[in-house]
Write a structure and sequence with these properties.
837 residues, alpha+beta, six-stranded mixed beta barrel, Macrolide_Exporter_MacB, membrane, cell membrane, coiled coil
Length: 837
């Protein structure tokens, strides 16, 4: 037995050219699977990083309470897997600056749940030790180093029996570390963080209870929705406000969608790769029928034949699969580096996730085993005499010859002899024909999907419409101190070569609506909102419906735009400028009508940003906005008032957004430089310029498009190789039959026509079926996604894609047919008929 199986390595070495062709197919298939695994891991990782950077951590929920004793019970509750507490101590205000430093007590495991990174030194461990965010340290008038002492005076507000009080303290801390912390959802960019131990924070505060935050991950005993219900049922937690990780809430669906998309794509590519490897090994086996017949004649059993073929395939795979993994890893990393415009060293070009290597290897080996076993199984069942005298075609059985050359179908009657012979060959090899068409259809459907999504969803156009300015200044006031002042705006206007296009205000508030205007959807939403607030729960039970909302202040230009989308309006736009009038947009949570009255809650702050109390102001609703026309993100109900009313009635003097346009486009860089210089000390104001933001969008869009089309190109290459192999196999397996036809008078030109007809059949059938399935796929995607992605999504008949598919399929299949012709004319007719491998 050992001597018999020793022919395996000899066969591999003897047929180097054939094994090299097989190896190329294996490399292409495995490298594609490997590249997809790398791109998937990097894409999911980047999306997770977006979530972390947006929300400041990997936690699932955030709890907030002024009762430290109750919220600290989160740490031992089996509902949560991990918990870290953040105990606010006070805010230090930088002298002669708008920069603030929030000093808080943190648990030791802060890095496990929050987006902290240690830059220098270490984290706090003992009393009086402090770690400060790096950019804040740069704002101090003195340059502090690790080990220096820093004296800070800080304050905070807290609620007691006597009402709102202010806690003030001054201490000397030892700087032990510099940290970075990112949380993009916090719009105020002028507020940094400083970390001390939670034990020291409690010593400083004593019996005073200021806000404590708990960040927790779900233990998975319940779903996240059920977890909120479970928390609400625990008495100690009833006064704890709990909310989702907003980054996961906003981007979690995107991550799930991308994950599912990659899983589907992975399955598709695995199928295509499997078909390619199967077909190439099928060629290998069928070309060796006579060889196997000789083995059988020498006494080899059918099982030994199968073992030989499978072991040869595995040995070839062991050589070429690692090469495919390395090539796939290299090119995937090249794509990533190129798209990111980043530099990398040679070693990083071969970084690959372990799961991707394992998946690629398993798919390669499994496809090889399947690709070898089934053809070998067929070959092993043929008797030695049949195998030796066979025409090398395992598919041509007697029961498959029912289709004759005297066709009854009208379509076939119109075909000539060569066309009918080509048709008969496809009928006799239905399985191979169907698998090849399926692999082609997969590529066609992917092409239809990609073209539809890229052609319909145009993020660049969406960006241009939403930005619609040369520069945008953003700032958000949470304490009456931040925001863009009239003085800043006037200073900008005095720069020259520009003008203020639009000024807007945004204020977080609560809006109480009339009891008869709540909908069932709105009531359910309020029930979920008030779980952690006993006062809000009581108000809800009394029929007082108060929505947490943003009030949008608009200038006259923006109000005129809104007027176009307003229905049921009762006042002219000019009449609402200085009056407590509001135009309301509602998204099914309320049923407010024109002439209803709503109440806004407004907080008051002094010039230092200290809280002075709250007021309630009544506004008259003078119009309702068509919700399908105006995008206000996820707002359930959104009131729009004039900037003047925002100042007079809601005590909001500063602007949250100012749009600046150039009066002379040639001065773009000059104005940008002046604006940057003007705002260099205003950390609370973010400057965005059109060109820079547009380039970012183009890069993101280019990256996504390149990845989509890149995979299509690679899959298409593999599919083309599969088509070429199928056509070659069709010729090789019928070489003796074709030679016999040549011997009875079928000249080379007619043989060529017959093979070309076969290629046409593959191309026409694949393109027709692929275009039908692809078109219906775009319709399904349109109806599923139009309400999620874009309310103005329009489906168009994909005529261009259909033309492209028809032309490409037919050209590819014709070229594949022509490439296979060279195998027909090797040797004389007599040699071809008498040939034995």
């Amino acid at each position: 037995m050992n001597s018999f199986f020793s022919i395996i390595p000899k066969n591999i070495l003897k047929n180097k050219k054939r094994n090299f062709i097989i190896g190329v197919s294996i490399i292409l298939a495995v490298s594609l699977v490997m590249a997809l695994s790398i791109i998937k891991d990097l894409t999911i990782k980047e999306l997770n990083n977006e979530v972390i950077n947006f929300s400041g951590g990997v936690y699932d929920i955030q709890g907030a309470s002024n009762n430290y004793k109750d919220i600290s019970k989160f740490k031992n509750d089996p509902l949560f897997e991990k918990v870290t507490l953040v105990n606010d101590v006070g805010v230090y205000k930088m002298p002669n600056s708008k920069t603030e430093l929030q000093i808080s007590g943190y648990d030791d495991n802060l890095e496990e749940l929050l987006n902290f990174n240690l830059i220098e030194g270490r984290y706090h461990k003992n009393d009086s030790e402090i770690a400060i965010q790096d950019w804040v340290l740069e704002q101090f008038p003195i340059s502090y180093k690790i080990g220096d002492k820093i004296k800070l005076e800080y304050s905070s507000t807290y609620m007691s029996k006597n009402g709102m009080n202010i806690f003030k303290d001054e201490r000397e801390f030892i700087l032990v570390g510099k940290v970075s912390f990112t949380r993009d959802e916090l719009i105020a960019k002028n507020k940094g963080v400083a970390c001390i131990t939670n034990e020291f924070a409690r010593k400083i505060l004593g019996e005073i209870n200021v806000q404590t935050l708990a960040y927790a991950t779900n233990s998975n005993r319940y779903s996240l929705d059920d977890l909120f219900i479970a928390i609400g049922m625990i008495d100690e937690y009833r006064n704890i406000n709990v909310r989702n990780n907003m980054g996961k809430y906003f981007l979690g669906g995107t991550i799930r969608l991308v994950t599912v998309t990659f899983q589907i794509l992975f399955i598709v590519i695995a199928i295509v790769a499997g078909i390619v490897i199967y077909n190439i090994f099928n060629i290998m086996v069928t070309e060796r029928i006579k060889e196997f017949g000789i083995y059988r004649a020498l006494g080899a059993s059918s099982n030994k034949i199968k073992i030989i073929v499978v072991l040869e395939g595995i040995m070839v795979g062991i050589v070429f699969i690692p090469i495919g993994i390395l090539i796939g890893t290299f090119f995937a990393n090249i794509i990533v580096i190129g798209l990111r415009n980043s530099s990398n060293n040679l070693l990083n070009l071969f970084n690959a996730p372990l799961n991707g290597i394992i998946q690629s290897f398993l798919i390669g080996i499994l496809a090889i085993i399947i690709g070898c076993y089934f053809p070998a199984k067929k070959a092993s069942k043929i008797s030695p005499i049949e195998a030796i005298v066979s025409n090398n075609n395992l598919e041509l059985k007697g029961h498959m010859l029912k289709e004759g050359l005297n066709p009854k179908k009208s379509i076939r009657r119109k075909l000539n002899f060569e066309g009918n012979m080509a048709y008969l060959n496809l009928v006799r090899n239905k399985r191979r024909f169907i698998t090849t068409v399926i692999s082609f259809n997969i590529i066609i459907v992917l092409l239809f999907t990609v073209n539809y999504l890229i052609g319909t969803i145009n993020p660049i156009n969406d960006f241009k419409k939403s930005f619609n300015s040369d520069f945008i200044l953003n700032s958000y006031s949470t304490n009456g101190k931040d925001g863009i002042t009239e003085k800043t705006i006037k200073d900008i206007e005095n720069m020259g070569n520009l003008y203020i296009d639009k000024k807007s205000k945004v204020k977080s508030s609560g809006m109480e609506i009339p009891p008869d205007t709540i909908t069932s959807k709105g009531y359910k939403f309020l029930e979920s909102v008030v779980k952690g607030d006993s006062n809000s729960r009581e108000n809800l039970q009394k029929g007082i419906y108060n929505f947490p909302i943003n009030v949008y202040g608009c200038d006259e230009k923006e109000l005129k735009v809104l007027e176009e989308y307003t229905i049921f309006k009762t006042e002219d736009i000019k009449e609402i400028k200085d009056k407590p009038y509001a135009i309301v947009l509602q998204n099914g949570y309320t049923n407010i009508q024109a002439d209803n009255f709503v109440k806004f809650k407004t907080d008051k702050f002094n010039e230092d940003g200290d809280f002075l109390g709250s007021d309630t102001v009544q506004f008259k609703v003078v119009g309702i906005i068509d919700g399908s026309k105006v995008d206000v993100s996820l707002d359930r109900v959104a009131p729009f008032i004039s900037n003047e009313a925002m100042s007079t009635y809601l005590n909001e003097q500063k602007y949250s957004e100012v749009r600046v346009n150039l009066s002379n486009k040639g001065s773009y860089e000059t104005v940008k430089g002046k604006l940057t210089n003007q705002l260099r000390n205003s950390k609370e104001i973010v400057l965005k310029d059109y060109k820079e933001e547009l380039e970012k969008e183009k890069v993101k869009n280019r990256n996504k498009t390149a990845i989509l089309y890149g995979f299509l190109v690679v899959i298409s290459i593999i599919t083309v190789i599969n088509i070429v192999n199928v056509m070659k196999m069709s010729v090789v397996l019928r070489k003796k039959d074709i030679s016999m036809l040549r011997s009875i008078g079928l000249d080379n030109k007619k043989v060529k026509k017959m093979i070309i007809y076969e290629g046409l059949f593959y191309g026409v059938i694949s393109s027709i079926s692929g275009c039908i399935i692809g078109t219906f796929t775009t319709i399904i995607i349109h109806f599923i996604s139009k309400d999620i992605i874009n309310t103005t999504l329009i489906w168009k008949f994909p005529l261009f894609t259909i033309i492209l598919v028809f032309f490409s399929c037919i050209v590819i299949c014709l070229l594949a047919a022509l490439m296979s012709l060279k195998n027909i004319y090797n040797g004389t007719i007599v040699e071809s008929i008498k040939s034995i491998e």
